[in-house]
Amino acid sequence: MFLIKLFIHKIIHSLNYINVSNNYNEQFGDPLYNISKKLYLTFLIKNDKQEQIKKLVVNENTYIMFQTTYAVNALTRKNNFFCLVGTYPNFNLYFNCIKFDKKFYDIVDSLNLTMMNVIHFRYENDWISFVSQNEENNKENIKEKILKSYLNVLHYLEEDKKVCVLTADSNSIYKLNIDKSKIYHLTTEEKDILLLDKFGITGREMRGILDFIIGVKYAKVFIGYFDIETNKGSTFSYALSMSNKATKNILIYDE
Questions:
Q1: Residue ranges covered by each domain of the chain
Q2: CB–CB of 229/241 below 8 Å?
Q3: Where are the beta strands (DSSP E) in the chain?
């Protein structure tokens, strides 16, 4: 079980009254003053026995509780479909309207971080198994390709900045060949201590929120694993690249 308290902030009910541009920052500041904002969510909940599709209209200041780790969130407007886990035209606009529980931001603020290079190192076993389709003979080949893709772009990192590595696999960070003294990394255990202190619970999704906020707030240069042309790779990397204020966003992909 995990708990996410979403503070729905400046959710835009309709885009019909907005001049959509590539600069979504121009659209914030409550463009529809005195009009109630709503977020339309569709959840696909899977378990061993069945699949359930649930629809929900979320008003401002709403608390949402999920009792499954297998929830796929989507945003809808009329006949259009905008998904939180894909590359759709208004992804950035919608995603930046969602704010997490203030306690997550308090945790990140307590770390006293500064602007850094940030790498989302999608090298964990679950990803390797997924892209290799669990074929043992293919796993090592996939790992070699992914690692090579990362190593080929490390020269984009700013040398005078720390390198924050976001990954659940702390034991693989050394493969990036980055000086240990320059690496900043929160382990799973360290995140759990921080989350348990604030919330009394923890979990993969909650740890992911901490990583996401760190990447959004402190990425000067960001490297992630996603291919925009084919929509393949880590949607977490894509979300970070769309939400941060980095001077450089480098997305790589090779399977």
A1: 2-99, 104-252
A2: no
A3: 2-4, 7-8, 39-46, 51-58, 64-66, 71-77, 80-83, 98-99, 116-120, 163-166, 183-184, 219-227, 232-233, 248-252
For the segment 82-97, what is each residue's pLDDT rounded down to a tens digit?
333 334 445 555 566 6
pLDDT tens-digit profile of 184-242?
Answer: 999 999 999 999 999 999 998 899 999 999 999 999 999 999 988 888 889 899 889 88
Torsion 175-135-236-24 (CA) sign: positive
Sequence length of the chain is 255
Question: Cα separation of 1 and 203, whole Å?
Answer: 8
- Asked if residues 118 and 223 have their Cβ atoms less than 8 Å apart, the reply is yes
Q: Is 6 exposed, middle or buried (0-12, 13-18, 19+ CB in 10 A)?
A: middle
Which of these, 231, 241, 188, 200, lies nearest to 87 by C-alpha position?
A: 231
Which of these, 231, 210, 169, lies nearest to 2 by C-alpha position?
Answer: 210
Main-chain dihedrals φ then ψ at residue 83, nearest 5 degrees: -110, 140
